[in-house]
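Hey L., structure's done. Input below.
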Amino acid sequence: MSHLSTRENRRSIMESREDDEVVPSDLEDAETRELQRQETDPPVRHLRIDWPSSTIKGRFAIGPSVPDMQPPLYDMPSSQDVELNSSSAVFLSKTSPINVVVQVLHGQGSQTPHSAPDTTGMNPVQVLQTMQRQAVYVYGKSSHNSVCLHIPQYVGRKPLHVRASSSSGHVTVVLPHSFNGLLRWNTEVGIVGFSPLVTARTQRLDSEPTKKRGTSKVVVDPDLPGWMTAQGRRGDVCEISTHSGRLYVCFSGENPSLAAKNCIIC
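Output:
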């Protein structure tokens, strides 16, 4: 039985929460070392690769606090992606596969932080819509081939929005363990599969659930510190779709052989 007073207990809880929210001071250095080790392209705030008939494969780094690169590293990001998102990585192809790893940086470029949106005078709905526009956006689409998006880690406070789609190819998404929010899937005649851990952390939200399409809530991993998940209130979204291919979602580092087996191009 605790001998602390109510005030002391409250103070202890608040201090514990504050410690849980503190981002490690060496996170930026760790990210920099990882980029050097993986020989990743220079990090940018907005990235776009639109190669209709060429394979898109590699490791890329983005982040809301990373300075914009002019001219762009690859193709010019669309004005809509820049306006609606704090950071984005968009990969588009028509006939070739997409297989990319996207590292979302937390501390890189902290000297030029991305300014927070002005919500003065907005009602709650407008504030929510404005904050959703500040998401970190990762999108991959190949019209007639497979797509594999891998986000190994994300510890920011802004929502993570992941979209992957194909008309006839397989779609695989590997999410960071800090992901907490909505998972939506849709296929006409394809197959849907989730890894054991994704299945364990999801709760169906559909009133009339089906195997081909649905929406689930991915609950926060209780073993992660609050600074990695924004205290479980970040509001991430993952949307995957294919007409006739296979859909598969797993968490980063979760049984790599199983992920590779379910990702046709890994």
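The longest strand covers residues 85-93. The chain has one domain: 26-262.

-- N.
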